[in-house]
Structure formats: C-alpha cells, structure tokens
Write a structure and sequence with these properties.
Elements: E1 6-8, E2 10-12, E3 15-17, E4 21-26, E5 33-39, H1 42-60, H2 64-80, H3 82-93, H4 97-117, E6 124-127, E7 136-143, E8 146-150, H5 156-169, E9 173-177, H6 184-195, E10 203-205, H7 210-219, E11 223-229, H8 232-242, E12 248-252, E13 258-261, H9 267-279, E14 291-295, H10 299-311, H11 331-347, E15 350-354, E16 371-374, H12 381-384, E17 391-397, H13 400-408, E18 412-413, E19 415-419, H14 423-430, E20 437-440, E21 455-456, E22 459-460, H15 465-470, E23 473-480
Parallel strand pairs: 1-5, 8-9, 8-11, 9-10, 11-12, 13-14, 13-19, 14-17, 16-17, 19-20
Antiparallel strand pairs: 2-3, 4-5, 6-7, 7-23, 12-22, 15-16, 18-21
Helix pairs in contact: 1-7, 2-4, 2-6, 3-4, 4-5, 5-6, 7-8, 9-10
The structure holds nicotinamide-adenine-dinucleotide.
Residues 150-155, 177, 179, 210-211, 214-215, 218, 229-231, 234, 237-238, 241, 252-255, 286, 386, 388, 414, 454, 459 line the site of nicotinamide-adenine-dinucleotide.
C-alpha cells in the first residue's frame, strides 16, 4: 500500500462532486489502490461547460492585475504545499519522488510564477492608421470564452498548469479534463485556485473516458478553444470530432525526438545528457530523446560511457529519494512498451544493454528495464514509432548532413538535442532540423518564457511564453474617428451631403 486512499471528485461550479461511476486508481509503484475516482459522464461535462460559460462575462471584465493577484496567491499556496504535490504526483504516476520534487513541482512553481508576474503580456496596444490621419486605433487582446483543456497521463501537474494559467490570465474560463489515470494533482490545483479566490465556474475540472468527456468537449459549440495534449492518433480524432464547430484547436502531440552526438562532443557530458534525455520518467515524456544519433567515429566510446552510467542507475522504490528508475504509469502502457521491445528484437536490432531490475523494485508495480538497442536502422519500427518508455535506439551517421536527414526522417518534429563543442556547428545543424525545440548541450529544459510545440505531426500552435499566451486571445480593433478625418470631408464612395 502506497499510503492512505485519496478520493477524487469532479470539480464543477466551485463544488466537489462525489457522484457518478466509481473507479479505483492503482498506484504503479506497487499496484496497490491509491485512490477512488468518480468518473464524469456527458451530463456532468455539459454542466461544467455551462458553468464556465456563465462565469465568463464577469471574469472577462476583471483586470489583468486582479487575475494575476489570484495567480500569485495560488503560487504561495503551491509553494507551501510542494511536498504534498510531489508525493501525489509520484504516487499517481510512478515517477521518482526526486523527479517530482526537483523537476515537476519545482518547474510548476516557476511556471505559475511566470504567469502570475509576467509583464510581457499586455491587454492592448495603440496603433496609427496610415490611411486615416488623426484617427486613433487600439488593438485589444480579448479572451475567446470557454477553453477546453484535454491532458494526457504522463505529466499531470505541469499539463494542468500549462492549460489553466494562460487561459485564466487572458480572461477565459476553463473546463479541464485530466487523464482519468492521473487526475490527482489537477484536482489539487483546482481546490487551491479556489482557496486563492478564483470565483466558482471560472475553472471546472472533470475527468473520465476520452470517448465520453473528451468527445463532449470537442463537439461542444460552447467551447471556443480546445487545447489538446496527447497522442497524434487521438489528436487527429479530436480534430475530426471538433470539425464543424469552428473552435480554435491547439494540439501538442507525440514525438520521436533525436538526440544527436557530433564527433567533437564532450563524450562524458553527452553520455549523461543522452541518459537524461531518454530515461527521465522512464521515457514517458513527449519530448524524450528516444533516438540517439551518433557520429560513427565516436560511437563505441560513447556507448561504453552510456553503459557505465546505466549500470549505476539505481532501481528501488520511486518514493525513496535515492531511486533513479521510476515505474511505468499504467499496466497498459507497460504492455505496449514490451510489445515494441519484442518487435525490435524481431527486426534484428542488437540488444546493447538492458538494466536488470531484479528484485530491486517494489513487487506488484509496473516497471520496465532501461534498454538500449544499437545497430538500429531508421526504417525499423522501433526507430519510427513512439515507444513512450525507457527504450533508446542507436543509429550512426557519418556527416552532419546525414544526421539532419535521419533526424528529419520522422513524421514527428517535437524536439531534438545536439551535443558538440562548437556552437556554430551545432547551430548550423539545429537550423536544418524540423522541430519546435532544439537543445544544444542540454535536454528537457522547458522554460515558461519559451514557446514549445511541434512541427509536422507533433502539433499545431504553441504553449508557454508570450506566443503561448497569445494563442488564448483574439483581437478587437477599436477605431476612434477624428475631425481631421471627418465623414463627408473625403470621398468615400457614398456622398452624404449637408446640403439639400
Ligand atoms: P492519449 O492520446 O491516449 O490521451 C490524451 C487525452 O485525450 C486523455 O485525457 C484521453 O482521455 C483523451 N482522449 C482520448 N480519446 C479522446 C477523444 N476521442 N476525444 C477527446 N479526448 C480524448 O494520450 P496519452 O496516452 O494519455 O498520453 C501519451 C501521449 O501524449 C504521447 O503520444 C505523448 O507524446 C503525448 N504528449 C505530448 C505532449 C506535448 O506537449 N507534445 C506532452 C505530453 C504527452
């Protein structure tokens, strides 16, 4: 047993609703019951949408200052409760407590701080109209109305922050659907936003099956922006289901990101970066660096450093701060990883190293050994499909141009890493890579101030930074006429004469 059972109800119109079909959440750490959850149905989802729609007019008339004050209060609450958030995130997802503490919760706090304090976003700007001297124009950045957010199971707290904060900051109201596998921290955030003074209805959180709750959000005419994060296959389904409703759709989808080590890289640093790129949260991150592309001159030396560090990765209970290897969040996901692992063996990839977890991890949990396949050709399924687990494929190249071609030979374009001692060489290669983010001599560094999102089948639109905030706004143009440009004084196609 991980710890006492938590009960999660939907959060609708400012009230926690513990009603509906009850389901049990299993902690992937040891397979024990971690919580009970009440699943929302179509009716409850519609009630949440209606609540957000009713709250919109008043909320949209609040000032940016008033909204940021509430986000600042939330910031203090989450900072105070950081340990609780980290525990909930680990118990529910199986990521190590060290990762929850030092990455997810720490980053969530920094990102809430960004939205609570940013001065980058301004609600309007003044313009001149070159055609109409003396007139004045104001361009306002206005909210759309109700934003629907749909999140995957892998990064629940950050996803909730990224979907809720920019939408609220810009004066929209929100219905968030966290994954019904990992709803814990999103519900906690909703309660804390209420404690911070967010009026009822401005944020609603409902969870349940994607085919029920998600579909209701996609099809609703009342949802004006749908911000979806999940797999590319589901993203395409969502865009079909939303088709005809004229809502704006933002999509953060899957990836198969290359982590490229050039011949002049610092091999020790690169080896650690490659491991961090793929094994953080056991590879269950959309931007995980799951394809290692390495220059053939240094391949053997790099692989031996990688093995050296992998052997030192510690299995254990993810709630122990010393543990390096976390669990796979769902039993189903573990099965999918195993299936692709077996496909890799069938395809003839060489099993270079697989960490023997032995009895080092808690019994009953969902774990998969960190694995490296070498001699992987880019036509193999394991180099093309998103495995979403701790499996690294290794492909070698002979020139930077070839590295770019292999990197781009994927339907995805979410992120990439480049390791090199030459900034100009790395930048030259980065400029040839079709992806929304390229890290040079680092990986997984997500900044609240920087837009993130995908090229190609990895997405449409951006999250975070000013670019991400602007996605939640539509412009209104106010035109102020002037005497200098008065009606009747210039030819306008229709003569309105003062004379009989
Ligand atoms: P998924 O596509 O199965 O589900 C994502 C969400 O969509 C869940 O909340 C699910 O319930 C919901 N859903 C399912 N069917 C739906 C439907 N018909 N209509 C509306 N919603 C529906 O993805 P997952 O397995 O939860 O998460 C893993 C995937 O998410 C991976 O592909 C990963 O790369 C991707 N991801 C992308 C990013 C990014 O920022 N690009 C971040 C995290 C995860």
């Amino acid at each position: 047993m991980v710890k006492t059972l938590e009960i999660f109800g939907n959060y609708i119109d400012g009230k926690i609703d513990k009603d509906g079909e009850e389901t049990t959440l299993l902690s992937p750490i040891d397979g024990s019951e971690f919580g009970k959850l009440y699943l929302a149905d179509e009716e409850k989802t519609k009630a949440a949408i209606d609540s957000a729609e009713s709250a919109f007019r008043k909320w949209s008339m609040t000032t940016l200052n008033q909204r940021q004050e509430i986000l600042s209060k939330l910031l203090s609450i989450v900072e105070e409760k950081a340990d609780r958030y980290a525990w909930l995130e680990s118990a529910n997802t199986g990521r190590t407590l060290r990762q929850s503490t030092f990455m997810d919760v720490t980053i969530a706090i920094e990102h809430i701080r960004y939205f609570a304090t940013t001065t980058e976003f301004v609600e309007s700007r003044t313009i001149e109209h070159p055609e109409y001297p003396g007139t004045k124009g104001i361009v306002q950045y206005r909210p759309f109305g109700v934003v629907g957010g749909v999140a995957p199971w892998n990064v629940p707290l950050l996803m909730a922050v990224w979907k809720i904060m920019p939408a609220l900051l810009t004066g929209n109201t929100v219905v968030l659907k966290p994954s019904h596998f990992t709803p814990a921290t999103a519900f906690e955030l909703a309660k804390d936003l209420s404690a911070a003074g967010l009026p009822p209805g401005v944020l609603n959180v409902v969870t349940g099956e994607g085919s029920v709750v998600g579909t209701t959000l996609s099809r609703s005419e009342k949802i004006k922006v749908l911000s979806f994060t999940g797999s590319t296959a589901t993203g395409k389904r969502v865009s079909r289901e939303a088709g005809g409703t004229l809502k704006k759709i933002l999509m953060e989808l899957g990836g198969k990101s290359p982590n490229i080590v050039l011949s002049d890289a610092d091999l020790d640093k690169a080896a650690k970066g490659v491991l961090f790129g793929i094994f953080l949260h056991s590879g269950q991150l959309c931007e995980s660096g799951s394809r290692l592309l390495v220059h053939d001159d240094i391949k053997e030396r790099l692989l031996s450093r990688i093995k050296f560090y992998m052997e030192r990765m510690k299995p254990g209970n993810p709630l122990d701060m010393e543990t390096d290897i976390g669990a796979i969040t769902t039993r189903e996901q573990r099965r999918k990883i195993e299936e692709l692992y077996n496909r890799g063996l069938e395809e003839g990839a060489k099993l270079f190293f697989s960490h023997n977890l032995g009895t080092g991890v808690p019994e009953g949990g969902f774990y998969f050994p960190p694995t490296v396949f070498s001699d992987v050709s880019s036509t193999m399924d394991i180099a093309r499909e998103e495995i979403f687990g701790p499996v690294l494929t290794v492909t070698d190249f002979h020139s930077d141009g070839e590295a770019a071609d292999i990197a781009n030979g994927s339907k995805y374009g979410l992120a990439a890493g480049i390791w090199s001692n030459s900034t100009s060489r790395a930048t030259g290669l980065a400029n040839r890579i079709d992806s929304g983010t390229v890290w040079i001599n680092d990986y997984h560094m997500i900044s609240a101030a920087a837009p993130r999102g995908g090229y190609k089948e990895s997405g449409i639109g951006r999250e975070l930074g000013l670019d991400g905030i602007m996605e939640y706004t539509q412009t209104r143009h106010l035109f102020y006429g002037s005497d200098e440009n008065a009606l009747g004084e210039i030819a306008r196609g229709l003569v309105v004469s003062d004379h009989d």
